[in-house]
Design brief:
About 75% of the residues lie in helices and about 0% in strands. α5 packs parallel to α15 and α9 runs antiparallel to α11.
Length: about 450
């Protein structure tokens, strides 16, 4: 990788593309590869890339740092702080226990309860790490252990099924909301820069709601058939949830404030045309309310390490991806690749390219790395084949997320569940492959039909 990067940096470029453009491509490729291999943390890798932009005179230091002024980056940062409030107040745990108490009498219902909690939290918490690591995973592990299901001989009693199913549900939730995971706003920005069409918060959820809900119903069922738990009836789970709710007591003032902020943010995100407020502004309003009410302290914000790491990571990647799109390199790639689909019907080209894009996620350890490297080039190629713009934009956006289902490292939450030790890598990958076939079918059949009804193509 380093040799390729150095070669591009110093070898004279082909006619029509400036030396700076090829140097930018080399730095971008090295940064993406580093984000996958992770010789250093992702944020540090991007910081190296941003520094290299100035060192190799690709752009001035002022231009290199423009990404950190982008509202999308601040939206992601603010949303991480909101998730901190959800965890600190205990509201997220309360929502989960209410679901479990209501429908957690059977192992399948238990999976639906945990995934349902995830789906609600995804409306305003873009950190899959915060949702899973801070709220859903600890409860999942506690429920498995309540039935004496631990890694090893007893894993199949309940824990293996729950870990696999909840992790796969998390990925569907990532696709469901614009705030489902942190790079979705970046995908929306790339789509707008490429086509001029904007995926707003309401449009994202309106287009995703039907295929997402169908997926959330059938994915747990599929895994239940392929990899069933030994324990089917789980009355103790409902009792456990009731006991935890008793310990939590009545909703505290801090929880009510957090719930109101959550509802306010979601409402304002759904009505941008009425308010005229940018999504980042809405998120920052939420943070200000949490600070002024004392739900969050300034110490909470400055010690939220994951949020600041993602801020460094996204600001740099966003800038490089944006600059690369302006060089003409991605357009040239699209023109060359489009030649391969000459004579094909647009729907055949779309199907083949979507499958390639989806399963390319085997090579990526994050949705962000996958989307920033491949979303724009594939979008250009699919559009060049004659695909209706909204069909191309939305299918690639959702597949950017759903592709994370195939491995145990596809997105932040997957290593958390896989790392619990209940499921082997072989089983995880086989289940992930089966789930990928199901979700591809649902989002192309149900999804495309739904978007036709919505007159998006």
């Amino acid at each position: 990788m380093l040799a390729v990067a150095v070669g591009i940096l110093f070898v004279p470029p082909p006619t029509g593309i400036t030396p700076q453009s090829w140097r930018l491509l080399a730095i971008f490729a090295a940064t993406i590869t580093g984000s996958i291999v992770r010789p250093v943390p992702g944020g540090a890798m991007v910081l190296l890339g941003v520094t290299a932009l100035s060192v190799f005179q690709v752009m001035s230091i002022e231009e290199s740092l423009i990404g950190y002024a982008d509202p999308v980056v601040w939206l992601v940062l603010a949303a991480f702080f909101i998730s901190r409030g959800m965890i600190k107040t205990g509201l997220g745990r309360r929502i989960a226990f209410l679901f479990i108490k209501a429908i957690g009498h059977y192992s399948l219902g238990l999976a639906y309860a945990l995934i349902g909690t995830e789906a609600i939290l995804g409306a305003a918490i873009p950190s899959t790490g915060a949702r899973s690591g801070g709220i859903i995973f600890p409860i999942t592990k506690s429920l498995a252990e309540a039935y004496e299901s631990r890694p090893g001989a007893s894993a199949r009693r309940l824990g293996a099924y729950l870990m696999t199913t909840v992790a796969q549900g998390n990925i569907v939730v990532c696709a469901m909301w614009l705030t489902g995971q942190a790079s979705n706003p970046i995908i929306a920005k790339l789509a707008k820069e490429t086509t001029g069409l904007e995926i707003t918060y309401p449009r994202w959820i309106t287009a995703a709601i039907l295929p997402a809900l169908v997926s959330l119903v059938f994915v747990p069922l599929l895994i239940y058939k392929l990899y069933p738990p030994e324990i089917k009836h789980t009355p103790a789970a409902s009792e456990f949830a009731s006991d935890q709710l008793r310990k939590l007591g009545k909703m505290k003032w801090s929880e009510w404030v957090m719930l109101l902020v959550f509802a306010l943010i979601a409402t304002l995100w759904m009505t941008p045309k009425l308010t005229g407020l940018h999504y980042a502004t809405v998120a920052m309003i939420g943070i200000c309310v949490l600070l002024l009410s004392g739900i969050l302290s300034w110490e909470d914000l400055i010690t939220e390490r994951e949020a600041w790491s993602v801020f460094i990571w996204y600001g740099g990647l966003l800038r490089m991806a944006e600059a690369l799109g302006q060089t003409g390199i991605t357009k040239r790639f699209a023109e060359s690749a489009a030649a391969l689909t000459v004579g094909w019907s647009w729907w055949v080209a779309l199907g083949v390219l979507l499958l390639i894009y989806f399963y390319a996620h085997y090579s990526f350890a994050s949705i962000t790395a996958h989307a920033t490297a491949m979303y724009t080039p594939f979008l250009l190629v699919i559009l060049a084949a004659g695909t209706p713009p909204w069909l191309a934009i939305l299918s690639l956006a959702y597949f950017s997320n759903l592709g994370a289902s195939v491995t145990h490292y596809g997105t932040t939450a997957s290593p958390i569940y896989f790392g619990a030790g209940y499921v082997s890598q072989k089983t995880w990958w086989l289940v992930g492959l089966a789930v990928s076939v199901l979700t591809i079918t649902i989002w192309t059949v149900v999804g495309f039909a739904w978007w036709k009804i919505l007159r998006l193509w």
